[in-house]
Amino acid sequence: RHVAFGVLSLKEYYEELTLDEIHERQQFAFEAAVRMRDRLLQQEVLARMDIDTKDAVKFVMEDEGRKMFQMLLFSKIVP
User: Fold this and answer.
1) Which end of the chain is more exposed for a tag (fewer CB within 10 A), N or C?
2) SS3 assignment for the chain
3) Which residues of the chain have pLDDT under 50?
4) What is the per-residue pLDDT for 58?
5) What does the alpha-carbon distance between residue 51 and residue 41 come to, in Å, rounded to a whole number?
6) What span, in angstroms and rounded, lies between the C-alpha atoms of 70 and 66?
7) What is the value of pTM for the model shown?
């Protein structure tokens, strides 16, 4: 719902942007999505607790609840 609102409300604005400005916004959105994805793995928390992040991330990646949450979170992000 929020994404659809953003798309509709910014449509005219984006039509006025230059190609460079559009690419800059695309890069920003991509980097934000990558950071959100990485934060879901909680590597900073694991490292602070002196837990081996390599093994813990493997465990976290297999969690079905996390997979579902991530799928729902990123389902509206399209290239």
Assistant:
1) C
2) CHHHHHHHHHHHHHHCCCHHHHHHHHHHHHHHHHHHHHHHCCHHHHHHCCCCHHHHHHHHHCCHHHHHHHHHHHCCCCC
3) none
4) 86
5) 13
6) 6
7) 0.61
Residue whose token pair is 């039509």 = 15
Q: What is the pLDDT of residue 57?
A: 86
Token reading at 25: 């916004």
Would you call 17 helix, strand, or coil by DSSP?
A: coil
**CA–CA dist 33, 50 (Å, integer):** 27
Token couple for 36: 């959100």
Amino acid, single-letter form, for residue 72 = L
Torsion angle, CA of 29/31/34/40, rounded to 10 degrees? -80
Q: Running DSSP on this structure, what letter comes out for residue 42?
A: T
pLDDT for the residue numbered 44:
86
- Ordered by start, the domain boundaries in the chain are 2-74
